[in-house]
Amino acid sequence: MSKANLLDRRAVVSELLRDRKGAFAVGGLGASTYDIAAAGDHDRNFYLWGGMGGAVMIGLGLALAQPKLPVVVITGDGEMLMGMGSLATVALQQPKNLSIIVLDNEAYGETGGQASHTGGTTDLVGVAKACGIGDSRSISTMAEVEAFALSLQDVMSGPRFASAKIDGANLERVLSSRDGTYIVNRIRGSIGHTPI
Amino acid sequence: MHARADTAASWPEEIFSILQRFEVRQVPYVPDAGHSELIERVLGSSSMRGIALTTEEEGVALLAGAWAGGQRGVLLMQSSGVGNCINMLSLVQIFRLPFLTLVTMRGEWGEFNPWQVPMGSNTQGILELSGIKVLRASRPDEVREVVEAGAAQAYNACTPTAVLLSQRLIGAKVFTK
């Protein structure tokens, strides 16, 4: 089911990463990892194929370790709901270089499109704000996506959180590497760390 | 009291020194009585960052991100927290992380609260089934060498390791009205 006034997920992610410079991109398991792969493979892409609920915390660990580089977590509403406590943990640490964006289709796309809480009663922007992430906003236009893409490069003014309502179209999967050791060691290599 | 005991560092202090020596930077934790002295030391340290979690599995994911970003970490938790981590422990194998966790034990050695016993009894088994090597320290005088060995194999050999700190070492929690 696709509504005309909702954003296209691939267009959103492609815009977020179009001029990424040195940014790390962490994808939640499922469609957001395919979206990041569709935007183009990159040695600072942190693809997740499991560990549901962990994307924001992986982003936090990375952001604290590399405070001069932008880190953007791009995940889905189901993955975010499973790790909602991590928004409180992020808020307490206030990592200036961490941005989080939820691609919210109000459904569990990977398991058949079952309804998620965000289509019912849960407002993730409200949750992020109440946890203490002051810069929390909902995004509904590509102009707002562009503004978010620009702001995520600013490593002095985070953390920031956004939720973009996207259409529920099931797009063709673009498969990234699913070898975790390769993915992590490639990221480490990109910042000058040699294998043990 | 034996003269040596007056000058020797406490075992939490010895753990702190080991973590410093291994250049540990990120220390995620869920507040815990057994770890309280160590957590205080970490929060007062300039080289380590103590990161309070809402649930222990957050710490496993955090350490994966830290490692990708070039930093070592250690997860401090209680035995009940191991149960909260199970699915997230997949990351330890998938990313071949230099994973170290220090687990204070409940549900053994004079436990008062029966609710601690089921998870405490299964902590070691769950860790081992998750591919994590388990070491244990039960007396103050063995904490240093056990934690040192655990840190060495975790960080030098990327061998995921949990060190269980026995309730016998920490002392059973006393419940009074």
From TrEMBL, chain A:
Keyword Secreted: no
SUPFAM superfamilies: Thiamin diphosphate-binding fold (THDP-binding)
Parts of the chain that traverse the membrane: 46-65
Single GO molecular function: thiamine pyrophosphate binding
The organism's place on the tree of life at top rank: Bacteria
UniProt keywords, alphabetically: Decarboxylase, Lyase, Membrane, Transmembrane, Transmembrane helix
InterPro entries: Sulfopyruvate_deCO2ase_bsu, THDP-binding, TPP_dependent_decarboxylase, TPP_enzyme_TPP-bd
Record domain Thiamine pyrophosphate enzyme TPP-binding: where: 47-146
GO biological process: small molecule metabolic process
Pfam families: TPP_enzyme_C (PF02775)
Matching PANTHER family: SULFOPYRUVATE DECARBOXYLASE, SULFOPYRUVATE DECARBOXYLASE SUBUNIT ALPHA
Name the record gives this protein: Thiamine pyrophosphate-dependent enzyme
From TrEMBL, chain B:
Domain of life where this protein originates: Bacteria
Single GO term (MF): carboxy-lyase activity
Keyword annotations of the record: Decarboxylase, Lyase, Pyruvate
Transmembrane segments: none
Coiled-coil segments: none
PANTHER family membership: SULFOPYRUVATE DECARBOXYLASE, SULFOPYRUVATE DECARBOXYLASE SUBUNIT ALPHA
Name of this protein: Sulfopyruvate decarboxylase alpha subunit
Source organism: Bradyrhizobium macuxiense
